[in-house]
Design brief:
This protein is of the alpha+beta class and 116 residues long. It is 52% helix and 12% strand. A hairpin with a 5-residue loop joins strand 1 and strand 2 (84-90). Helix 2 crosses helix 4 (56-68), helix 2 (10-24) crosses helix 5 (94-101) and helix 5 crosses helix 6. The longest helix is centred in the first third of the chain and has 15 residues, at 10-24. It is globular. It starts with a helix and ends with a helix.
Length: 116
């Protein structure tokens, strides 16, 4: 899994950590807007420029890439209006993700804050 985590972009690692945080809170499967809000709230917890901000469309793209990489699993949930919406949950072990990303120059501080 380390090789997979190293091969994804910093923004995708950041989004993955947001899903780890939601998972630890028992809030997964999570929709893209929940992941976006969690990520926006954590921009101050990273040791780099904040990716030019966090836009929902970028988060949706990152979630798809993470699912394609096997780090997230897609679950279908229904919205209040009855529409099927993709939601995401961890497919990787959260502790392994945190251990792997804790030493990362860009998102390590966020990973370490989730381990505390």
């Amino acid at each position: 899994m380390d090789a997979t985590l190293d091969s994804i972009q910093s923004f995708e690692q950041f989004v993955l950590l947001s899903v780890v945080e939601l998972s630890a809170a028992g809030a997964t499967p999570a929709h893209s807007y929940e992941v976006t809000e969690t990520a926006k709230a954590r921009l101050d917890d990273i040791d780099r420029d904040p990716f030019g901000g966090v836009e929902r469309q970028e988060v949706i793209t990152a979630l798809g890439a993470l699912a394609d990489a096997g780090l997230l699993a897609k679950a279908e949930t229904e919205s209040a209006t009855g529409k099927g919406r993709p939601a995401y949950e961890l497919a990787a072990d959260s502790e392994a993700v945190l251990a792997s990303l804790s030493g990362n120059d860009d998102v390590g501080s966020y990973a370490r804050s989730l381990r505390a």
